[in-house]
Design a protein that fits this description.
mainly beta; Immunoglobulin-like; five-stranded mixed sheet; 2 helices; 15% helix; globular
């Protein structure tokens, strides 16, 4: 009986630890695929300059049917290396939808390096939000990038949900960028 009680306590502690890691710990972002384009503002289109959000690419003299997708840039210095990270800091959505977050990195240490490897991780992703790395060649020369697909569960309650996306370049961790998902009715 004592062994069963000890095993039960260990199991509860282990499950609590794993649950806490999922809620706030670092987790690798699994590979995924880019959703089929359904003519939305945050569909990824490929231009001569690299990947871009559909709403942020338009022809001069033509009315753009969408407001631009807001983006942010964060600069980091790690040792002698300085990089810039271009990303989407917030997503407004309805439950059951998925959206794209284009993440691009650039810097002096990247431009001459053709074997450069970008790896992402997530921290603090709330239950009901799934993130996958659709990959793809979305950057121009000197820029490494990928597309994160952020899927919201149909059961997700309206509200604001935050998490972080971590950036590693050739295995060197540069830190995280904040992301906010606002689920509307």
């Amino acid at each position: 009986m004592k062994k069963l009680a000890c095993l039960s306590i260990i199991l509860v502690l282990l499950l609590s630890f794993l649950s806490a890691c999922g809620a706030g710990g670092k987790a690798a972002i699994p590979p995924g695929t880019l959703p089929v384009s359904d003519n939305r503002a945050d569909d990824i289109v490929f231009t001569p300059g690299g990947g871009a959000y559909r709403a942020n690419v338009y022809q001069e003299g033509t009315t753009n049917p969408w407001p631009p997708v807001p983006v942010a840039v964060q600069d980091w210095t790690k040792g002698k290396d300085t990089i810039s990270v271009f990303y989407r800091p917030s997503i407004d959505t309805k439950a059951g939808e998925s959206h794209n977050d284009l993440i691009l990195t650039s810097g002096e240490d990247i431009s001459g390096n053709t074997t450069y490897k970008l790896t992402l991780y997530a921290a603090g992703v709330p239950q009901g939000i799934t993130i996958t790395d659709a990959g793809g060649s979305v950057g121009r020369p000197g820029v490494a990038g990928t597309v994160l697909v952020v899927a919201i569960s149909p059961q997700m309650a309206p509200g604001e949900y935050s998490f972080k996306v971590g950036i590693k370049l050739d295995g060197k961790d540069y830190g995280t960028v904040p992301c906010m998902v606002t689920v509307t009715q």
